[in-house]
Design brief:
The structure holds 2 protein chains of 2 kinds. By secondary structure, chain A is mainly alpha-helical. Chain A is 83% helix and 0% strand. Chain A is built from 11 helices and no strands. Chain A has helices spanning 2-15, 17-50, 57-81, 86-90, 94-99, 104-131, 141-167, 172-195, 200-207, 209-217, 223-250. In chain A, helix 2 runs antiparallel to helix 3 (57-81). In chain B, helix 6 (170-186) links the parallel strand 7 and strand 8 (188-192). By secondary structure, chain B is of the alpha/beta class. In chain B, helix 3 packs across helix 4 (114-124) and helix 4 crosses helix 5 (140-152). The longest helix of chain B is centred in the middle third of the chain and has 17 residues, at 170-186. Chain B has 2 domains: 5-224, P-loop containing nucleotide triphosphate hydrolases (Rossmann fold, 3-Layer(aba) Sandwich), CATH 3.40.50.300; 228-293, Alpha-Beta Plaits. Chain B contains 10 helices and 14 strands. Chain B has helices at 45-53, 74-78, 96-106, 114-124, 140-152, 170-186, 196-202, 242-246, 273-283, 297-305, and strands at residues 5-16, 19-30, 34-38, 60-65, 68-69, 81-84, 158-162, 188-192, 205-210, 213-219, 231-236, 251-256, 261-266, 287-293. Classes of the chains: A mainly alpha, B alpha/beta. At the A-B interface, helix 1, helix 5 and helix 11 of A face helix 1, helix 2 and helix 3 of B.
Chain lengths: 251, 324
Amino acid sequence: MIGTIAARELRSLFLSPLAWAILAVVQLILGYIFLLYLDTYLQWQGRLAAIEGAPGVTEVVARPLFTDAAVVLLLVVPLLTMRLVSEERRSRTLTLLLSAPVSMTEIVLGKYLGLMGFLALMVALVGLMPISLLVGGGLDLGLLAAGLLGLLLVVASFGAAGLLLSAMTEQPTVAAIGAFGLLLLLWILGTAGTTAGEETGPVLRYLSVLTHYEALLKGVFDTRDVVYYLLFTLTCLVLAIRRLDADRLRG
Amino acid sequence: MSEEVLIRVEELARFYGEVPAVRGVSFALRRGEVLGFLGPNGAGKSTTMQVLAGALAPSAGQVLVGGVDLLDEPRAAKAQIGYLPEQPPLYRELTVDEYLAYCARLRRVPRRAVGEAVARAKARCGLADAGARLIGNLSKGYQQRVGIAQAILHAPAVVILDEPTVGLDPIQIREIRALIRELGGEHSVILSTHILPEVQAVCDRVLIIHQGQLVLNERVDRLALGLAEPALRLALRHPPAPEALAALPGVVRVEPGAAGRFQLFYREGEDPTDALVAQAVAAGWGLAELSPVRRSLEEVFVELTCGEGPEAPRPGAMPKARAA
């Protein structure tokens, strides 16, 4: 049942010009960024070769690319998630789901998985860029895998936050701006954490989506970072389910 | 019509904040019955239907669908319900076939049976040729049909239709009414409408809801019985003096109208129809029209919903149920 809803969601995404436009724009921008980093690497290659333990191509090209990709996706994911629930509420199609023999959990998970299908494709396309370098040389595949996993986790939590905001309103634009604000806030918490005092600093740094991503980009696979994203995602999904339930109860 | 009760509603109440939209509504619907749900705007019709369909939770009361409690076992109960909301829940970017297949899967129709269920629903709603068309490009009437097809896909025990004939042309309305009657054969149908003749045409039972409360629950064919004095309406081409009509057995009073029309009031149980027809033929009155006067549903409706004094509906007192 979750699969049915997810398939419909994914299909509707690809039937809308928005998804294609987003894919194209993101791919274009990140492709350009990728080429810029690649160019930098080629310029420095000679000097880097002389230094022992110098950063390799994966660190010089893939890592900053993934960091930038996360920033771009922070802007883009709210646009993809904004319509998930609010549009259905607006066009009154939500009634179809509510009156069908499916639970609220199935509805939310179905929608989320449909969205994740799309986002996973986007992450895969980003990943293909550094992987294409394998044609001409070697890559640190472990580092690349950690980075890709990090990007996927970051995007998964963005998606869940967007879904929650979409479940909270009837206006897609409000959902988009709300999700964008929330994500940006969580992003800058990391910066705030570095300047804050002894007490609050670590807390803020822990809450930031950025801190945990950086560790993964360095190739440090710490379960605490993974758990952070999973917890964040789960919390958003549970809240979204509760929100939809409240809809049915309070009307 | 069997005695099996498919849907039973007990003391249903629903509040929007402090505002009661529906209170103390109870009724039962047997298999094969078509139930007409009437009420002025904002009386609580749509709210009641949404609660029955499981799209809104009731504030109090119980809904049993085929003996299954809608609140305790929502999945089993909802599987037996097909619901068309006021505004059909259509995905404009899908084709009719895609949409119906999705709805079928959502209603837990087994994967192998989906194609057949979709084809059957399309055939019944006159959509056989529209399968490959985008829903967004369909006319309002066709969209309405897709909405109805979606509600009957999984052969539910109870079909709930909220104003199904709105926006349809007269021919489509006739088709949809015929479809509703047909559905009434095997399913139970709950139908809300503003068109009173529609209820008389297709329903077995009528519920009138007013200010959130049930004010009438009666079989349609019994509605006329509430009339104080039975009467006949007739038109004659060569009318005699009214006294000749008054002399017929059982006739109490004659009210002459224009152009040879009369209303004949008679005593309960002493229907003068036979004597009248015989007399008309013998005396060459030229009987042109003869029909029993029934209390129309409209009169009942107006009487119940425009009650006098403090009970009269206050404009805006009952906000229209908002779709959740």
